[in-house]
Amino acid sequence: MELINPTNTELYKLAIHDAPYVIAAYAVLWVALVGYVTLILRRMLKIEKEIDVLEDAVKK
Amino acid sequence: MKKELKWAIVLAVIGGLLTTVAFVMAFTTAGVRTFGFVDTPGAVDTVYPLAPPDSQPTDGTLRYQRPWFSQKIFYFHVPLAEASLLVFTLAAVFAVLFLIKRKKSYDTRSYVGMETTLVFSVGTMITGVLWTIPSWLSDWTQIVPVMMAEPRLVTYLFMLLLVVAYFVLRNSIDDEERRAVYSSVFAIVAWLSAPITFFITRINPNGQHPVVFQSGMDPSNLIPFILGQLGMLALGFAIYSLRIAEESSREALAVIKDSFEG
Known about the structure:
The complex is a heterodimer.
Chain A: H1 6-14, H2 19-59
Chain B: H1 3-27, E1 34-40, E2 62-67, H2 74-101, H3 104-136, H4 143-148, H5 151-171, H6 176-191, H7 193-203, H8 219-261
Antiparallel strand pairs in B: 1-2
Helix pairs in contact in B: 1-8, 2-3, 2-6, 2-8, 3-5, 3-6, 3-8, 5-6, 5-7
């Protein structure tokens, strides 16, 4: 398989009109997924911190 | 770090890598289809043929067959939709298990599945609209009538509204047991819309929406498509697992708080 399919090179010359939609679709997808995963991880870290504090308090 | 959290992160990394490879291939090695026409001021050195003479404009511009750039959205729009349907199925399975065994963890798994379905369904709708505008419309204001005339889009929108309704129902019930039972029943009924939206383009092939594989696929398109599917499924399961890990941490915190206060 060729590294770059020649039809793609031609496509970039002729179909630039569609580019904003394709870029927007990628951007929306990645921002949504990365944002959601970051949100979950931040919430988890907060909960784990709370658990640590309470566990220490119970031990004392 | 919990074992399930580690697995979720590993899956997220694998999913991220696979989808990235698929996306790069979509713009490099994947072949390009044509769809409609494009006008240029003069001749262009291109592999795409000119439009038939009877459809050439008379103002001196040249009309070529149009390379379908927005088709590149296909490599992540379809995997997103598939992941949404599979996670929805997982949520319905756990809803059934909850109704049979009445274990709280099954309700939690069903709820988390519905939440993941919502994220993936919204992503599918947005990327679908961004595909529809340049591919099917000459003017974005036609979007509503075109969408309403397309069976796949109508049934998928209906499915998305049912998923949203699940959360409205869930948040409107205070009693924990009743909330879990009603939500599970609703999740199962709502899930019935998933096979309908999946098979609608096969039952009614008259719409504009492409039917994957039936519409034909060049081998250079197939590899990034499969990688995109595997990657998006890994990402879907990673997000689902992350949320399960979060919910179990939340439950552990509640237990510690109870014992601390008691």
